Amino acid sequence: MNVFDDDPCILGEGPLWHPERTALFWFDIMARRLHCKAPGGDVQTWVFDDYVSAAGWVDHDTLLMASATGLWRFDIPNGARELVVPLEADDPVTRSNDGRADPQGGFWIGTMGVRLEPMAGAIYRFYKGELRQLYPDISIPNSICFSPDGRTAYFADTPTQQIMKVALDDDGWPDGAPQVFADLRADDLNPDGSVVDARGVLWNAQWGAGRLAMYDPDGTLTGTLDVPATQPTCPAFGGTRVYVTTAAEGTDAAGAGLTYALDVSVAGQKEHRVIL
Predict the structure, then answer these.
(1) CA–CA dist 268, 19 (Å, integer)
(2) Residue 59: per-residue pLDDT
(3) Residue ranges of the domains in the chain?
């Protein structure tokens, strides 16, 4: 893997390839920053007064951005943001974490304790103006991603060491109870962020293991890819290039917190557009 950006993030997260701007957006949660960089270009950075962690694209100039207190309409050219809906705004214990847009135009977002308080968070879905809690009592929400046909959602509560899957209805809401997709407990692996490529293969960043792991739609491990940092947090595809955020928090190892990129032989899904 090559270094895409060499400015270390305390907790890099939420990489998003904007298909209309052909640029990568990503967050440093603990530094309360959003970064943007096109390949070969310079980095642009915005700093906020609360934790920010994930986003989906609405149009060329707009993101839906998650923070510790809400979902925001973020204007990329001028840096202004407007509240769309509060998100646990009255709970000082929690912040937002992993999130991603689904094929139906919804946006899934997880919350968690700022100090890793057990089961302090939840997973929500925002769809056409409605924010609905899907799963309560979540400790560290991660791996939110979707099959290309929009019929399956994946997510994880990292301390459980399991990636879950759940069927979706025509509007993208869960249809039935979640089931175990990949059980990582036997290998003592910690699932962080994930993305699904155009074939339906799930790519999972495994915190502490310094790798991405690939799982077929039936949950079978089909390969791994080393990351030059022990704490990878989330992958994202931009065409046939995979980007990976990492975290420097709690380690002084070389390469920690940098953002990486690698050209691969498969394509990712185009990131789905959020419908406000």
Answers:
(1) 12
(2) 98
(3) 2-263
pLDDT value at position 271?
Answer: 97
Q: What percent of the chain has pLDDT over 90?
A: 99
Q: What pLDDT sits at residue 89?
A: 97
What value does the mean pLDDT take over residues 131-147? 98
Residue 157 a catalytic site member: no
Annotated catalytic residue, options 28, 192, 218, 226: 192
Give how far the C-alpha of residue 151 lies from the chain's centroid of Cα atoms, to the nearest Å: 19
Pull the structure tokens for residue 161: 């060491």
| Residue 8 exposure: Cα atoms within 13 Å on the Cβ side | 15
CATH no., domain 2-263: 2.120.10.30
User: What is the amino acid identity at position 201?
Assistant: V
Task: Retrieve residue 109's tokens.
Answer: 């977002």
What mean pLDDT comes out for the span 107-111?
98
> Which residue do the tokens 């997260």 mark?
13
Pairing of strands 121-127, 107-113: antiparallel
Tokens read off for 155: 């997510």
How far, in Å, CA of 61 to CA of 65, rounded? Answer: 13
CB contact burial 150-162 (16+ within 10 A = b; e otherwise):
bebbbbbbbebbb
Vertex 33: Cα angle to 31 and 35 (nearest 5)? 135
The tokens of 243 are what? Answer: 């980007």
Strand 179-183 to 190-196 pairing: unpaired
Cβ(84)–Cβ(71) below 8 Å: yes
Look-up: residue for tokens 């997709």? Answer: 181
Q: What mean pLDDT, rounded, does the chain reach?
A: 98
> Which tokens is 121 given?
């968070």
Threshold 0.90, pTM exceeds = yes
- What contacts 222, CB < 8 A, 6 or more positions away? 201, 214, 215, 216
